[in-house]
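User: I'm preparing a small set of examples for a lab meeting where we compare how different chains pack in three dimensions. I only have the primary sequence for this one, and I'd like the structure in token form so I can line it up with the others. Please keep the answer compact; I'll paste it straight into my notes.
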Amino acid sequence: EVQLVESGGGLVQAGGSLRLSCAASGFTFDDYAIGWFRQAPGKEREGVSCISSSDGSTYYADSVKGRFSISRNNAKNTVYLQMNNLKPEDTAVYSCHVRWWGADYWGQGTQVTVSS
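Assistant: Understood. Below is the structure token output for the 116-residue chain.
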């Protein structure tokens, strides 16, 4: 069974930092790209960042470029999202995602709240 479990969210002041973790199980972690998405109240879910399975190449949404950094530890089946210089508009539920055999899997999400 594919499972994704996020952790590391919380309440932080603007300008602060958080590191989110996404622990994966139930599939060959090394073979799959993993993405981070977020959804703020009343808004659609948006892609934040992703990291490939092969060469570790990364993608960032323009809104987080230069502030967020994604990485993966294949030995621990975990993907991290380091978030620096957080802004109130980063407030959202952050979820990780994998597409496995054509099906989309999501974690339960972790709340990030940035106060001004």
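A couple of notes for your slides: The two ends are 40 Å apart (CA to CA). The CA atoms of residues 21 and 80 lie 5 Å apart.

User: Perfect, thanks.
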